[in-house]
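Help needed: design a sequence for this.
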């Protein structure tokens, strides 16, 4: 077997417009992984696997060079309604508007939310501003009977959970 056929045997293949197969590039592999993970989350049974959520967030936010604040909307049985990237910021911060988060939760008829954002710095430790924002959002959403189940910070492959740390 030639070296070329050995490398093709272990590669993921994609079909081009002409119908020919070729090895997938890194961006195509990541895009396919995002679709698979999103499919596993959306409309799934109750979120009984924190690992599925963590894997999805690592792929979605772990490599970004700018901050993104997103929300995972859940129904009353904690099934995923939608994942929405709400705010985009700079390399070290993003502005989050509680009014907009509440509006999105009401528009999707969410019963609960998972708040998520990334730290491009690679440090998953929550800042004082992260803690304050979480409490502000939790209070605002409680006024319309939407629960905040967790706030997750993604920094590369590391993920910190406010709920696991007792910060919620």
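Sure. Designed sequence:
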């Amino acid at each position: 077997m030639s070296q070329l056929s050995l490398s093709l045997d272990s590669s993921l293949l994609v079909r081009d417009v002409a119908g020919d197969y070729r090895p997938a590039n890194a961006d195509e592999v990541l895009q396919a992984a995002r679709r698979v993970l999103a499919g596993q989350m959306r409309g799934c049974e109750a979120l009984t696997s924190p690992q599925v959520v963590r894997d999805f967030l690592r792929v979605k936010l772990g490599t970004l060079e700018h901050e993104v604040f997103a929300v995972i909307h859940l129904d009353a049985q904690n099934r995923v309604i939608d994942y929405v990237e709400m705010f985009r910021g700079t390399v070290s911060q993003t502005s989050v508007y509680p009014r907009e988060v509440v509006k999105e939760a009401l528009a999707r008829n969410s019963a609960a939310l998972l708040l998520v954002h990334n730290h491009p710095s690679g440090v998953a430790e929550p800042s004082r501003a992260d803690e304050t924002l979480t409490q502000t959002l939790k209070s605002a959403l409680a006024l319309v009977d939407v629960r905040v189940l967790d706030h997750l910070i993604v920094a590369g492959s590391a993920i910190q959970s406010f709920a696991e740390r007792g910060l919620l």
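The helical segments are 3-9, 26-41, 50-61, 98-107, 128-142.
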